[in-house]
């Protein structure tokens, strides 16, 4: 699917498909952290089963009010114990499949929210 968003200063996902997303002209085919203010870094988990508590502790260290977690092609929830670092910092986490996470991230980023998408591709 390709997006045609209104102009925004936030970093926006311009397209996605199975196993990839596009940010501007860059096609990304590995799991990634994306922030509205320009964060873009690889996230070391190729699939949901690779996740652990350390992945969510890493998210708690980011400058965000909300994390959108894209769990891959279907909606899967992380272990509740892994969310303790996020709760301690009063950061929200919304879990959905990766295509829905891309759309939700774009809406929130376009609104100027301090949002980060953690996407398993």
UniProtKB/TrEMBL annotation:
Alphabetical list of InterPro entries matching this protein: MTH938-like_sf, NDUFAF3/AAMDC
SUPFAM superfamilies: MTH938-like
Superkingdom field: Bacteria
Gene3D superfamilies for the chain: MTH938-like
Pfam families to which the protein is assigned, alphabetical: DUF498
Protein's UniProt name: Xcc1710-like domain-containing protein
């Amino acid at each position: 699917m390709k997006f045609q968003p209104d102009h925004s200063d936030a970093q926006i996902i311009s397209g996605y498909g199975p196993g990839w997303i596009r940010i501007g002209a860059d096609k990304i085919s590995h799991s990634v952290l994306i922030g509205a203010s320009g964060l873009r870094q690889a996230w070391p988990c190729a699939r949901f089963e690779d996740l652990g508590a350390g992945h969510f502790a890493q998210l708690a260290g980011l400058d965000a009010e909300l994390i959108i977690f894209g769990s891959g092609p279907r909606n899967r929830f992380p272990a509740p114990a892994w969310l303790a670092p996020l709760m301690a910092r009063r950061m929200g986490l919304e879990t959905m499949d990766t295509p829905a996470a891309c759309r939700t991230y774009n809406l929130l980023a376009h609104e100027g929210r301090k949002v980060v998408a953690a996407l398993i591709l």
